[in-house]
Design a protein that fits this description.
With about 250 residues, the chain is mainly β. It is about 10% helix and about 40% strand. The strands form three sheets. An eight-stranded mixed beta barrel has the order 8-9-10-15-13-12-11-16. Strands 6-5-4-1-7 form a five-stranded antiparallel beta sheet, with no helix packed on it. A two-stranded antiparallel ribbon has the order 2-3. A hairpin with a 4-residue loop joins strand 8 and strand 9.
Length: about 250
């Protein structure tokens, strides 16, 4: 699980604009010797989403159906409690039959239970296409990082132990931070997934982070988080923006 993190957060719109520009300039460093480059991902590793981006309205109701009359599953605000823009991952899009313009987006809903989704008006979010994603193989205890459908980095991981298994499903990076806990290693991503352990900082949010115990990589030892070697999380730090999909599979 991810713990509260240190550092200063954006406090003005100039900072948010600068952040968006920097994210748009992210490039992928040359892959290490452990990288492979298949022609396309397998069905197990493939990710098919509309895009990810920030909420544009002060708040938006996430509804059970693409209709303003449908029940509200959750209300999401434009900014997180730490003042960072709130990011969503869109799984599906509805369009106007006459104009072809987007009308509704089905987004994944962070929080328990894992795997929930709901609909928001398309105008309430600003999306960008997704060209990269992480795949976590829980059984094989490895990760793969894809860019434009090709693996550019892979490595060994540690996963959740029995009773607090790392959940499977499609999640995304909600935030990135320099951790204040040594156990989280060199860097950490906060995901939209939640562990079975609810009394952990952040309510049991699953993290993808480094480690101060590299000898445990390859084992099932965490409370649900995915641990990487520090060299791998440091590589991903610069090439994985907020909003990046994370697919966790049982294989």
């Amino acid at each position: 699980m991810v713990a509260p993190h240190k550092g200063h957060y954006p406090v003005g719109m100039k900072a948010f604009v600068l952040l968006a520009v920097l994210v748009g300039l992210i490039a992928v460093p040359a892959a290490g010797a452990d990288a492979t480059a298949p022609s396309k991902p397998s069905a197990l590793a493939a990710v098919d989403v509309v895009g990810s981006g920030t909420i544009a309205w002060p708040s938006v109701a996430v509804r059970s159906q693409p209709s303003r009359k449908a029940s509200v599953l959750k209300t999401m605000t434009q900014f997180r409690p730490d003042f960072r823009p709130r990011v969503v991952l869109a799984l599906e899009q509805r369009t106007d039959a006459e104009t072809g313009e987007p009308t509704w987006l089905r987004i994944t809903i962070p929080g328990r239970p894992n795997g929930r989704s709901g609909w928001i008006p398309a105008a309430s979010a600003t999306l960008k296409p997704v060209d990269r994603w992480l795949v976590i193989y829980r059984g094989a205890r490895k990760f793969e990082f894809y860019v434009n459908g090709k693996v550019v980095r892979s490595g060994r991981i540690a996963i959740g132990k029995k009773g607090t298994e790392t959940p499977t499903g499609l999640f995304y990076v909600q935030a990135k931070f320099d951790p204040s806990w040594e156990v989280l290693g060199a860097y950490a991503f906060e995901t939209s997934g939640y562990s079975k352990l609810s009394d952990w900082p952040g309510g049991g949010v699953v993290g993808v982070h480094g480690t101060n115990a590299p000898e445990l990589i390859g084992q099932a030892v965490s409370h649900g988080c995915v641990r990487l070697l520090n060299k791998d999380i440091q590589y991903l730090r610069s090439v994985v923006p907020v909003g990046t999909p994370i697919k966790i599979v049982a294989a």
